[in-house]
Design goal:
The protein is mostly helical. The protein has 9 helices and no strands.
């Protein structure tokens, strides 16, 4: 794919993201994306076959960008505790963000399509986050920053708490105080 095609595809994905944020997943059609991008229907189908394919590409792009932002925020001399606190603070920002979020669209997509474990990007991201969190906690235990007898169990628990907070943010609403309380509980559990 040439540079012009790469840029066009990225433009479509960035524009489609805005459409998914506004309408969720279920209500978005290829026509909506064509109109938002101001391109021909054929021009869109040159790159994508369906709204599902576009949505999954939007999620991948979003994940890559979030990883880049987080990685760029970590100091060279950061300790395991510093990294964990930075990660939890980034999660807090995301949880409290009221606008420009794909959370509703993500849940609509997964409730509608029930992807298998193999192609479920949320499951893949969750499992990857658990592994990274487990390594981070293990490193913190080895350096004496944390105390934890079951690093994998703690990592899984942290990710389930964050996922529960995401759902709560979309359904019943949460406050900064609620998120701070949960973060404090996580840190206390590690004696951080």
């Amino acid at each position: 794919m040439g540079e012009k095609s790469v840029q066009k595809k990225k433009f479509i994905l960035e524009t489609a993201r805005k459409v998914f944020v506004e309408k969720g997943f279920k209500k978005v059609t290829m026509k909506d994306i064509v109109e938002a991008c101001q391109i021909s229907r054929g021009g869109l189908y040159l790159y994508f076959d369906s709204t599902s394919q576009i949505f999954l590409e939007v999620l991948k792009l979003e994940s890559e960008e979030a990883d880049d932002v987080f990685s760029g925020s970590i100091r060279e001399d950061a300790t395991s505790a510093d990294i964990l606190i930075l990660f939890l603070q980034e999660q807090k920002k995301e949880l409290l963000r009221k606008e420009n979020t794909l959370t509703q669209a993500i849940y609509e997509y997964y409730f509608e399509f029930h992807p298998t474990k193999k192609d479920n990007i949320l499951k893949i991201q969750f499992d990857s986050a658990v592994k990274i969190m487990e390594m981070l906690i293990q490193t913190g235990v080895e350096s004496g920053e944390f105390y934890c007898e079951d690093c994998k169990g703690m990592a899984r628990n942290i990710m389930f708490v964050l996922e529960g907070l995401k759902i709560s943010a979309q359904t019943i609403g949460i406050t900064a105080e609620t998120v701070d309380r949960e973060i404090a509980y996580i840190l206390k559990s590690l004696d951080a």
